[in-house]
Amino acid sequence: MNLYKKYEPDNGYIRIIESGEMGIMGLDFGILNLGVGESFFEDTGDNEVMLIVLGGQCELLVGHNGNKAHGLIGERANVFGGEAYRASVPYRTTYEILAHDEPAEVAVCKAPSFLETAAVILEPGDDFNRGEHALMVSETPIHSISGEAICFYRFAPAEGHASQRIYSEVHSFEQSMNLRHNNVLALPKGYHADLVESKARLYCLQICYS
Predict the structure, then answer these.
(1) What's residue 133's pLDDT?
(2) Handedness of CA 19, 138, 52, 200 (dihedral sign)
(3) Which residues have CB under 8 Å from 150's CB, separation 6+?
(4) Looking at residue 62, what is its pLDDT?
(5) DSSP 62-97
(6) Among 12, 107, 151, 153, which is least packed by CB within 10 angstroms?
């Protein structure tokens, strides 16, 4: 059973894992790369969306002309440059991301939700009432993870790697994996992942939902 994908950076939006793929039944994950002067527009549909600025800075407009939330997001050069700017966008809402003076890389995390929540932009260190949201996203490296979850990994230096053990008592499954830069783990419900050893500085973006 293959639980890993390799993200290959490219211009525009790259959808990496969609709901129903690799045993993941609700979560959806992709990465958006915008060059200077480029933009991206989307309607969230029946999903709650969390945007995490991995690097660079961009302008975010949520709702028509930004009437739900509007601001500049992002200030770090890369994922190892401090905490991220994040933005939560509720279901059935449009949003647009514009890169003005520098390129921007943004993780786009989705989960089905019909919760009536407000759009909110979170600066580094800000938090919000998680009880009002179905989608949970964390940048804190977690050594033990339980599914259903998607994890995106980066290393500094990029040549670094780590060992990870995947197992499930329910499904009588066990596998050891050598994690690399830009690996994405899709961990289905009933599976667990333990980080055994890391040979470099490790970044992990973990996405799950309640």
Answers:
(1) 76
(2) negative
(3) 17, 24, 27, 29, 109, 184, 185, 186, 187, 206, 207, 208
(4) 97
(5) ESGGGSSEEEEE---SSTTSSPPPEEEE-SS-EEEE
(6) 12
CA distance 70 to 81: 24
Closest by alpha carbon to 105, among 161, 193, 33? 33
pLDDT of residue 131: 65
Distance CA 155, CA 168 (A): 26
What pLDDT, on the 0 to 100 scale, is given for residue 130? 63
| pLDDT at 116 (0 to 100) | 87
Full set of structural domains in the chain with CATH: 8-128 (2.60.120.10), 144-209 (no CATH)
DSSP letters of the chain? Answer: ---EEE----SEEEEEE-TTSTT-SS-EEEEEEE-TT-EEEEE-TTEEEEEEEEEE-EEEEESGGGSSEEEEE---SSTTSSPPPEEEE-SS-EEEEE--SS-EEEEEEEEE-------EEE-TT----GGG-SEEEE-S--SEEESSEEEEEEEESTT-EEEEEEEETTTTEEEEEEEETTEEEEE-TT-EEEEEEESSEEEEEEEEE-
How far apart, in whole angstroms, are the C-alpha atoms of residue 68 and residue 99?
Answer: 19
User: Which tokens hold the place of 135?
Assistant: 């989608």
Residue 129's pLDDT is 65
